[in-house]
Design brief:
Blueprint lengths: L3 E4 L3 E2 L5 E7 L8 E7 L6 E6 L6 E3 L7 E6 L4 E6 L8 E8 L15 E5 L2
Parallel strand pairs: 2-10
Antiparallel strand pairs: 1-3, 3-8, 4-5, 4-9, 5-6, 7-8, 9-10
């Protein structure tokens, strides 16, 4: 099982930007599709974005399209989520996980600690 550590979450004002990082513990990271998920209090954990092992294919939830960009650096075992035009409803704990390499939506491993993003004035 891959160990994943998310970071980069913090308090940001509406309209602001933030980049989240997720670093994996093993070199095989480069062979996996990866996804970012989020969970706000009282809600289910939902997919935000996914990326193929090569980075050539991506998936975005409707609310993320045009505002968020997922990318990866396999040499650093890291996947990123660049978020722009942030809204208060983007506030959540963000998690990364390996995902299936067809839909990019199904998580495959146990969840890590996540990183908290709060969008507020």
């Amino acid at each position: 099982q891959v160990q994943l550590v998310e970071s980069g979450g913090r308090l940001v004002q509406p309209g602001g930007s933030l980049r989240l990082s997720c670093t994996a513990s093993e070199r095989a990271f480069g062979a996996y599709a990866m996804g970012w998920f989020r969970q706000a209090p009282g809600t289910a954990r939902d997919i935000v974005a996914g990326i193929s092992w090569s980075g050539r294919a991506t998936y975005y939830a409707d609310d993320a399209k045009g505002r968020f960009t997922i990318s990866r650096d396999n040499a650093k075992n890291t996947v990123y989520l660049q978020m722009t035009l942030l809204k208060p409803e983007d506030s959540a704990v963000y998690y990364c996980n390996r995902v299936d390499d067809s839909s990019f939506k199904s998580p495959l491993d146990a969840w890590g600690q996540g990183t908290l993003v709060t969008v507020s004035a």
